[in-house]
Amino acid sequence: MSAPLSGWRLxxxxxxxxxxxxxxxxxxxxxxxxxPVLVMAAGLAAIATVDISPGEDAAMRSRGVSAVVTVNxxxxxxxxxxxxxxxxxxxxxxxxxPTATEISxxxxxxxxxxxxxxxxxxxxxxxxxxxxxRGSVVLTDLTSPILRQQxxxxxxxxxxxxxxxxxxxxxxxxxLPTSGPLGMRVHDGSASPVTVVGVTSAGVPGVAVxxxxxxxxxxxxxxxxxxxxxxxxxxxxxxxxxxxxTVSAPGTAIEEEVAPTATDPGMALGIAVxxxxxxxxxxxxxxxxxxxxxxxxxxxxxxxxxxxxxxGMLRRMVMAEAMLLGxxxxxxxxxLGTALGAAAGHFSRxxxxxxxxxxxxxxxxxxxxxxxxxFASLVAAFAPAMAAGRTNLLAALRGQVSSRTxxxxxxxxxxxxxxxxxxxxxxxxxLDNDDTSQQTLLAYVGVPLFFGGAVLAVPYVLMAxxxxxxxxxxxxxxxxxxxxxxxxxxTASVGAVLATVAVxxxxxxxxxxxxxxxxxxxxxxxxxxxxxxxxxxxxxTQPRTQAExxxxxxxxxxxxxxxxxxxxxxxxGEKFIGFAESCPTAGDYLDSASLETTYIDASGMxxxxxxxxxxxxxxxxxxxxxxxxxxxxxxxxxxPARQGPHTITLKRFVAEWTDTGRTKTxxxxxxxxxxxxxxxxRINDTMKTDRDTTAIMLRSTAEKHxxxxxxxxxxxxxxxxxxxxxxxxxxxxxPFGLDLYVERGYSSPMSQILLALTVLAGLLVxxxxxxxxxxxxxxxRADAATLATVGAPLGMRRRIVGAHAAAIGFIGSVVGIxxxxxxxxxxxxxxxxxxxxxxxxxSVPGTYxxxxxxxxILLVGVPLLAAxxxxxxxxxxxxxxxxxx
Length: 885
Prior knowledge:
Layout: H1 2-21, H2 23-50, H3 54-61, E1 65-71, H4 73-76, H5 100-107, E2 111-126, E3 129-139, E4 151-156, E5 164-168, H6 169-173, E6 180-186, E7 192-202, E8 207-211, E9 222-227, H7 234-239, E10 245-248, H8 253-257, H9 267-296, H10 298-306, H11 311-353, H12 363-389, H13 393-398, H14 409-430, H15 437-456, H16 458-468, H17 474-485, H18 487-521, E11 531-534, H19 546-557, E12 563-569, E13 575-580, H20 590-593, E14 597-600, H21 602-608, H22 612-619, E15 623-627, H23 635-642, E16 646-657, E17 663-679, H24 680-687, E18 695-698, H25 699-704, E19 709-716, H26 724-733, E20 739-742, H27 750-779, H28 781-789, H29 794-832, E21 834-837, E22 840-843, H30 852-873
Parallel strand pairs: 3-8, 5-7, 14-18, 15-17
Antiparallel strand pairs: 1-9, 1-10, 2-3, 2-6, 2-9, 4-7, 5-8, 6-7, 11-19, 11-20, 12-19, 13-16, 15-18, 16-17, 21-22
């Protein structure tokens, strides 16, 4: 085992000496490895700190207590047999959880109940006046000493009675007042005016308000915190399961059982693509530095070969430098990046969420980054090392650089590799399989094939560029021919630029195409400039009386008018009453058995623009039936209605839900109603709901037939549309706790995102180009001295350096754009080439957009900027050295 290691002793010593001797050049080479490793380490550390894992969340919620007791959903729903809770003498259910006193009696320790609810707060001041905002509300008694470690009063005092609350640091961040009145709405409770009496810190993320439950609000999702005055064993925690309760206590086996173990199915694919991309980017960025270093050592390598050094020794000399430089740089970059990422994640959590999360530094990730970065450095040095093993002894000692003719099969193999890599990545992305092993394998194969194939074609492109350089001005001609002559060194630089531009091009083409497709196929939810209140958050309040309806609508109509309420049949999960053409049979689903009826009032009739006949039908207690291709009303009752007002017979039924989710009909009676038609298009254009309305009635008609209804939406359509100030005022009013959506057409930040991506890619291209150009300038001292000797002015020498940078950037960008467009278009075809209709998925022509204005930045702007920077840092007075024969 010592023989292989002893062969590395001398190369490592020579590499260490070379790094110390050429500190400036080594620093430039290290920078190309340092940057991607720093970004990777900082990103992972920030993600780990910002993302609160289930274990960290559980630890934060159990801070200062011995256990957290919750009702077990599975057991309480009847999936397992449970026994009566001894402290209460009854079985525990979600609807009737135990009390804190009962938990305390059973645990023989103080306990307190705590419920985390979703709430809406208003009015909250903003730049346009007042609006509403959302956050979590913890309903509990803050005076209990059990909570002293989870909540700490920072300003004011703790709430003493219902109606008093304190806000958290997160509540202050989202704009809640630190004192005075505040409107708060929790789940299905009515709006509860509360008074803010202080500010508290909270160890639970997302909590904005803490205080006792207001009057009339019944907490849900109740959990219980048991004082830290007692300890729990695994057997004790397990014994509570038979009561339908779960005890989560640190150090107990039950805590491990309930810990989530599911993983994201796409995680393996993401890790595969991310790892390969990181290796590819790091290798391509570092390759120019190692290629320049190998060129600088040509004479040293020649002397080693002249003294009996084998090809293996020559290769190990180049690889040893990559190993040392890569490992040392990776360690420093990983440590610094982890520290910066953890600090950034910690700051963002404190600044935007008001909590102090644990700094999550994962040593295994750090070790992995160092190992992968070192491996990437060895990959970057592989080609220069292979070239070093073929060093021509006489040419090296004479300082002669010869450029071999590139064989035609090399670019052909490269093109084949790019095609195969693109197909592998396409298959990996489009493969619909829960088992991601095949996707992961395709990603590991596709990324090296794509980038490797592209780099294989670069030498031929450089050779062709050198042949065409005769038509360029003198300085550009010298620079391009130097790039062509030094193909071993320039291939790495152009390859790094090529890979960066290719990835950027593919992503921008795909994203631009998808964005254009979504813009073209966008369907407004409501007419442009109007709005709609809906209960999508699930915490809206259904008014109990007509007075409540009138009061809520009047408050909103003082801000905007008209506001049109829409009602639907009420479904309380136990009983459903509605209208149907025929009595539903046992087991029918309600959505297929009943008419999709929308109930309106006088404002709804005005909004629909009904004729006198249609108004007369509704006011007489009749119904308007939808006519159109999608109408589900049968011809039996629709055909007579088309002829004009006609009396039809519908069924008023009462259905009850069964345990299987289906229904049984307990009552079904005929009802005679006048009917008239209404075009389906008029309903859709004016109401704009996600329901396929087939019948329209007045709400008074539903009340007459004792059909319970609930508010489904409020359509807001003021003249002139809804501006931002009116939108904020309507959100603050929030009638019945509903949520407002205002239609302003399709909007997407994709242009800004793609511009930022292009700028980032351009920055990487500039860094790579400038550093590789400066390294080349450092290795070309003899050529610079020759030019100075024959009278070339400083400006010309600097222009040659700038032209060298521009040539690398331009050639790499041209090839990168050419090969990056193809996979972008292929992925765009998959993303936009399918239309989903009621009959299923159908293939349609895809949407293809190439953002040329972004690509021109990479093709023209970035190379010119890199040239200007390189000229600025170019060597001003090259040393005059004697050429050695």
